Amino acid sequence: MTSPSAPSRPALTADTLTDTQKRALITRLQALADDEIILAHRDSEWTGHAPILEEDIALANIAQDEIGHALMYLTLREQLDGQQADQLTFFRGPREYTNVQLVELPKGDWAFTMLRQYLYDAFEALYLDALRASTYAPLAEVANKAVREEKFHLQHTALWVERLGLGTEESRRRLQDALNTQWAYTSQLFQPTDGEAELIAAGITPDPAAVHARWDGLVRAHLDRSGLQVPAGDGHPFTRAQHSEALLYLLTEMQSTAREHADAQVW
Amino acid sequence: MTAPHTHPSRITPQHVWDALSLVPDPEIPVVSITDMGMVREVEVQEGQVSVTFTPTFSGCPALHVIRQSIVDAVRDLGVQDVTVHSTLTPPWTTDWIQEDARERLRQYGIAPPAPAGDQLITLDPEPTRCPRCHSLNVRMTASFGPTLCKRLYVCDACKEPFEGFKSV
Q1: Is B24 helix (H, G, I), strand (E, B) or coil?
Q2: Would you call B142 and A54 a contact, using CB atoms and an 8 Å cutoff?
Q3: What pLDDT, in 10s, does the model give residues B68-107?
Q4: Between B61, B125, B141, which is nearest A155 by CB?
Q5: pLDDT band (50, 70, 90) for residue A6
Q6: Prediction ipTM score
Q7: Residue A11 forms contact with B (CB below 8 Å)
Q8: Average per-residue pLDDT in chain A?
Q9: With an 8 Å Cβ cutoff, are A141 and B88 in contact?
């Protein structure tokens, strides 16, 4: 007699994905990696400039983790289409990058940087938490690894939101200003990527709408406790193909060494 | 150091494990990569050695150094054919750090990690003991430290600052 347990979906491998699933997964992996790379670069702009040494170190740690996550996503992509992480990172221009605009906004002041990192960390932690159930085994493995690191980011930036929100009149004002600017950009984090419906149906990636609902509950409660007001209004209607001018300058700086020495083996 | 003159065809997995147990963690030299639970598997077949290791943190800059140290340690046994694989599954956890290594961490001034548990997403940090006076009356002064795996504390009982291993 066969087992009466509920039928479980077979774990997928790179060989059992359909071509359309593969294309959609490459798009999603690149989107996840691009968000991490661009945010990590913005964070790295504080190296040597953060308000105190401990925070300089903390933000460098966070940036380093995010680059580690990007590398894991891009290693999964390489297994699907052979494209290499360094090539994708340093030799694509702003028209080819697929990050959300939230992460490319210039770094602003400390409140702006901490709030953005907090909003993003909450997204990433919850997205990864859902991604652990992926039917594509290599992706579930990456999620299980990354989610353990992400909890430290979220603890850290949640505390900064509280500290600045409940701190002085000026720290609260700066944080509220940052929230007024950034809130409309957050909905872009939860837009499905091209062809993603098929991935969701196959259990390969989570439904971004479900992640959005969890994120909204967590973040609104915390912002409220921290004395902030979430602005009303709809999110910006950008797609991942649309960028601000800021990305051009960011990539010019980030890619300059690699492009200057394109045949270097180590740098 | 283990058996430099053993013929490659006589190398056993235990020789390799013993050699790897002498490879220090590049950032915390009082513990080895085997103490840390980073070496997951050693296979020996007809003089070929294959080692599987798992990274502690995905963005750890010491990974290249560790990989090379593994190759060097096995080559020192007289084996030329060494391959090093990395795996993410199961994900590394501080629960794998050996008991005696925890004590060495503590003597070195680093609070060993608390049990990791299952609660992955929480806003509260885990309890930590001062490695010098064992008090739980400690304050975290920075949630990130000089390496990805540590954070900074001050003990309010003995007033000493110290580093604590993150519980992952």
Answers
A1: strand
A2: yes
A3: 999 999 999 999 999 999 898 888 999 999 899 999 999 9
A4: B125
A5: very low
A6: 0.72
A7: no
A8: 93
A9: yes
CATH number (3.40.50.720, 3.30.300.130, 3.90.1150.10, 3.40.50.11810) of B8-86 reads 3.30.300.130
Cβ within 8 Å, pair B143-A64 = no
Contact list in A for residue B143 (CB cut-off 8 A) is: 58, 152, 155-156, 159
Q: Where are the beta strands (DSSP E) in A75-149?
A: none
Q: Which residue of A has its CA nearest to B142?
A: A54
How many Cβ atoms from other residues are within 10 Å of residue A217's Cβ?
11
Nearest to A97, CA basis, from A256, A259, A265, A254: A254
**Pairing status of strand B48-53 against strand B39-45:** antiparallel
B129 Cβ partners below 8 Å, 6+ apart? B111, B135, B136, B138
The Cα of B117 is separated from the nearest Cα of chain A by a number of Å equal to 11
Segments making up each domain of chain B, as ranges: 8-86, 109-165
User: Which among B59, B91, B121 has the least Cβ separation from residue A65?
Assistant: B59
